[in-house]
Amino acid sequence: MRIAISTGGGDAPGLNAVIRAAVLSAIDRGWDVLGIKRGFAGLLGEDEVIPLTRDSVRGIAHMGGTILRTTNRGNPFQYPVEQADGSFVEIDRSDELMDSARRYGIDAVITIGGDGSLLIAQRLHEKGMKIVGVPKTIDNDVSGTITTFGFDTAVTTALEAIDKLHTTAESHSRVIVLEVMGRHAGFIALHSGLAGTADVILIPEIPYDLDRVCEKVMARDRAGRHFSIVVVAEGAYPKGGEVSTLGESLPGQAKRVGGIADSIAREIHECTGKETRSLVLGHLQRGGMPTGYDRLLATRFGGAAVRAVADEAWGHMVALQSPHIVYVPIEEALREPKRVDPVHDTVLTARSTGISFGD
Ligand code: F6P
Prior knowledge:
This protein has helices at residues 15-28, 94-103, 115-126, 151-172, 187-195, 210-222, 260-272, 292-310, 330-335, 345-352; strands at 2-7, 32-36, 49-51, 79-82, 88-91, 108-113, 131-135, 175-180, 200-202, 228-233, 276-280, 316-321, 324-329. It is α/β, with parallel strands linked by helices. The chain is elongated.
């Protein structure tokens, strides 16, 4: 038996722990393991396919990033190819990929990725590839699993930032707006904001009204709390308005979302007269060592993915449905993306402890 592992999409702390657990579990069964570099680029001749041995995964469980590298511009069904005039066209290279996998003698593939990579996995499965998925996203926006590794690390990073911002915001009587990741889902903002006792949390699932945000800031001011912390998910948008995007993205890449913190800080200054500052936490949330929780979940996912291959659970992804790791059809997980439920207890508790969602 020869399996291959690939990591696709944005990285997330814990990827290396998944790779390590999968490689060791496969070797334990006497299987051969290959690593496809940079998403599926290795199989398309654009990067390498390397053997993964005990030595290749030694000492990597605590490391952020991925030893296999990754890309969010490598969809084999819509592969961006540069033309002589510098423009790009997207071509379907999936047949080439299937042939290449056969030539390498790959019997099954474990693909670790978010909704984009899981959709690619589903389509490859429909083409006959024996493939299982491992869900990965710091945004926690994949359905079918209670959580994904990387999310806890991102929340912890955001929480540290909120704690630090509190002291400086209070010293200067300022409103500080912190933008965290979450292009479609507000889980990082909600969890870090509630745990960090932010004053306002703005998420894509609850469009905001800036007047409500200003009311909250002024009500605190009147009560002698002259500073406020606003945590905003990058994909949050005002009622009747649009998500803020950042310039051009590269060929084959999704639109870049962001920049909302700066405009909210300006608007809060205009309506309250208070001094404001903003910052974007950005890719700090994707970097660094995975937390203990993420390392453990990633390791469990890696081991379970190899069991899924042994069980021939093709087209399924491993998922956490506490206390168990289960297999979920990828198609089912992709049917409805996971979003914050506006009446979830986390939101209710945030509201009842005085946090405004700007609605
Ligand atoms: O991993 C998902 C995500 O973190 C989104 O929240 C964010 O919009 C995106 O990645 C940023 O990706 P990139 O690395 O392309 O800037």
